[in-house]
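Journal club side-thread
Mid-discussion, someone asked how the predicted structure for our own chain would compare to the paper's figures. Pasting it here so we can look after the session.
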Amino acid sequence: MLWQAISAVRDLGRLHDIASVLIRYGFGDLVRRMGLANLLERTGLALHWNEAQELAHLEPPARVRRALEELGPTFVKLGQMLATRIDLFEPEWITEFGKLQDSTPAAPWADVRQQLCEDLGAPPEAIFAAFDPEPLAAASIAQVHRARLEDGSEVVVKVRRPGIRPVIEADLRWLARLAELAERESQDLRSFRPQEVVRQFTQSLRRELDFAGECRNAEHIAENFSGYTDKDELTGDITAEATPEPSAVLPIIVIPRVYWQWTGERVCVQEFMAGISGRKLAEVDQAGLDRKILARRGARAVLKMIVEDGFFHADPHPGNVFYLPGNRIAFIDFGMVGRLTEERRDQLIRLLLGLVKQEPRRVAEVMLDWTGDSAMDEDSLLLEIQTFVQQYYGVALKQLRLGAMLSDLVAILRQHHLALPPDLSLLIKAFISLEGMGRELDPDFDMAGEAMPLLEQALRARYAPTALLQRGWRGVSEALSLVAGLPRDVSRLLRAARRGRLEIHIDVTHLKRVGNQIDSAANRLVVGIVIAALIIGSSIVMTVPGGPTLLGLPFFGLLGFTGAAIGSIWLLLSIWRSGGEE
């Protein structure tokens, strides 16, 4: 159980807080089954088991969401990440996770200023012509201040909250241990793949703590949009009623400039976006911007990132989007990005074209490739996917809801207890958010219609003669490399065999747990044999005259019977506990 983690004594106080919150929100049984109660009580930390009454009326998704909010920044971020796992959680859970707001009171200015002095190499007053100590926004990990450079450029300074990293690292250590226990001890929780979820979350959160990495992501996406134009505007398909747009000289998609001389792991300085937040649609109308153009441009920009570049903004919600004069769009906050390999992009193109063109076989093949579970019933899954796709047969393209179709498709996988790889769950969540944002701007927004030309163009480019030639040459090169290295590999294998050092490793699922159970059973058998030997030996000693006595009975005989009694009690308790855990 958790005694393997007892070395992390510094985190026991935090574990007590976690267990207390879980009990208060009605998850006391989980605390007991995972062994947290025994560990904390043995270390002198008491738990209050009568705190869950006031919250017992809440539905489980609401209780989990409120518990995450109370547990603090790391767990709020965890809930936000879980909101992307539509392949693991039912819609009501996703809705509750989506309510988690990452906003907290600002950190004391004195602490922030001291950290800024360390990171900038000088006080902020010496670096900037103006610096506002009052933050524009404050979240669990960082807060953002507005400033002005000596040349008059308006910038935002994003500062990591002082002292937040040790707190997050402690939470991540316990999350990893709790996920391991949950997957091992609870059949109900095992279907949620807690260890995989925590691994994905840990990697994502640690990347988010590195602001320099976030800025590198921003520059990567800015480079991909260099020279980007709206093709429909050039052909006259989109016309704005407002004044002519300056798109010939100004970029349609804007990514904030990074000032690297003041950017590092804990602070980043970026261009200030003086636009209208995506949350303030009324101001969009007041500014005379065209909602239809904004919806189409935003969708095409994100589709380009996904289909063409394979590097996309993974959280395109309204708070991360600004609308600028000339119907231009700015994206901010690149702490969470998605990456797609060429193979993944090819699969995605085939999947989306299969959905739009109602080709169930193509959709089913891609979904089976994605899940990769050899133990599933492929025929049953294939039939369900075919039935799902065929229900859209004959539906007009503009009436298709691509995000809803993807959600329903993932629900089929969830019913079969299949999960998508993390990069794909992030991608599908981005698609759903994108379509929702487009419909907020334009109720007639046609996501499928916007995607079709780009998907067909990407598919044609993939099967163009030059692309086929490049892939063929790459395959030949890999095959030649394999053949060239074969003699060396065979020679190494034979040398290892001659020396008796040839090893074969077999990894069997759950074999470790079976081994632990066998070890436990063997230990109990040994204890039982020792107890039997003590009883027999003590009985013999009782019949032998002479030697020291206690209460008129041979002392060593009594000692043997006492040891046998203690061993018997331990053995019975051990058997009872193992039966309760299973």
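Post-session note: The radius of gyration is 31 Å.
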